[in-house]
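User: Can you recover a sequence for this backbone? Please restate the input before giving your answer.

Assistant: Of course. Working from this structure:
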């Protein structure tokens, strides 16, 4: 029998919004580093040329819909840099697990935009057919698990 990732009890009391520094909340990045300049809607955290938002805990399909309702998507990690950005955010947010936009469909691991995994960072991997949704671990890497578990999610959108 395949190991199953435990539910994350601490996320059930997680706040819907994340406290950010005044500079991040005001979308003011360090002008000495223009590569980090991002202009994001209120409540979104600028990072690089993308904006991130933590959404409340729910099932994978529900948080994906919540991200879409905010004109975003569940975050993905198509490169090591993308993963490093997400891992940094995960450590900042402080939860154990986060839904991201990876899923198993028709025998292939894909990102929410339909692209196939090129880069991956598995901490552990369970049966893909039984556990088709990807959760980022705050401690590093990602795992596939039951889509019905309730975790917060990291949404992403392009910065303006």
């Amino acid at each position: 029998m395949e190991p199953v990732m435990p539910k994350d009890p601490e996320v059930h009391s997680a706040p819907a919004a994340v406290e950010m520094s005044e500079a991040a909340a005001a979308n003011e990045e360090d002008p000495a580093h223009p590569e980090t300049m991002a202009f994001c809607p209120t409540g979104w955290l600028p990072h690089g040329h993308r904006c991130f938002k933590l959404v409340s805990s729910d099932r994978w399909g529900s948080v994906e819909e919540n991200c879409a309702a905010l004109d975003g998507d569940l975050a993905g990690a198509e490169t090591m840099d993308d993963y490093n950005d997400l891992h940094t955010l995960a450590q900042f947010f402080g939860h154990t697990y986060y839904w991201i936009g990876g899923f198993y469909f028709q025998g292939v691991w894909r990102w929410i935009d339909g692209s196939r995994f090129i880069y991956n960072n598995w901490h552990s991997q369970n049966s893909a057919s039984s556990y088709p949704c990807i959760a980022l671990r705050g401690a590093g890497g990602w795992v596939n698990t039951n889509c019905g578990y309730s975790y917060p999610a990291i949404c992403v959108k392009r910065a303006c």
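That completes the design. The first helix runs from residue 22 to 25.
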